[in-house]
Give the backbone structure.
Amino acid sequence: MRIGILLQMAGRRAGGPETYEVELVRALAKIDGENQYVIYCNHPAAIEAVGVAQANFQFHLLRPQNRWISQTVTLPALILRDRISLLHSTFTPPFICPARSVLTVHCLSSLSHPEFYPRGVAWRLNHLLRKGIRSSDALICVSEATRKHVAELFPVPSGRLSVAHNGVSPGFRSLLPAEASHVLRQRLGIDFPYLLFVGKLQARKNIVRLIDAYALYRKRSADPVKLLLAGNPTGSTAPIEEAIRRNDLGNEVIRIGYVPEDCLNALYSAARMFLFPSLHEGFGIPLLEAMTCGTPVLTSNTTSLPEIAADAAVLVDPLSIEDMADGMLRLDRSPELRFQLVQKGFQRVREFTWEKCARTTLGVYQTVQ
């Protein structure tokens, strides 16, 4: 079988969708030496990011200058030229696909909460998702929560829906305190205790309520621990800046931007706790990264997050500042609870591997061909 895979986020520091694309292709390369793969990349850095050099994998960089032309003209022509029998779109589908098709659905937050996105972005995402969900021969959902959401919004036969959970990148591991502290001092200039958030700074991630909850936590705790926000902003940061100013936390909430994976290990490992109170997630890869690094986790009790975290995290209502602050205090005041969650986290992450994701994905390919 000649399989095309469209990588739209790889090489763009795009968070979970980029991690998914990179790790899926790497895992497929490890388990499948028979099928022929053509990887179509939107970004010049994608090929290096994936790092696969294998006889049955070839890469083609689409013209980045004009995405409209590359998706409507160039890609369909390449699919025909390359005799692709199946195209797997890993984020959104192309406008035209002259082959059988598989689409990965990460989440439908742009449909259920368009207010989280700039108007033009939400319109484009929703148009492509509706088209792809209705026309694709098979849909791969990254969680059971996403599968249920698709089934609620679209009349998709159950036989077209599969679930392939994400994994955690093999580079993540728990570092000893001395090793983590050394990396943080040398690379990021961090030498103080902190609570940690990792992810894009956007409305869906609930950053403003997180800051308000942190302010309440600080009032009730004698520990002068800071809050680190690691990730690039998407859209206006004015609401975040206002929350910091309103709570008089200018020196306590620190935005450190995008952090590469070789520093993330240390950042997770040294954190007092990892906070991920997102309003809507299709999966939540940072949960697994934090658990792998031995960090106790607090996350939301909504969408996919309870499915992924199970009993290995403190679950809170992301709409309740009081509940979030109370969860932080519980973790802060109970060494026993932190220890239990860390041990449960080590066990939980074993359930999620990219090899398992790739094998499920390959099984979907075989049913569609």
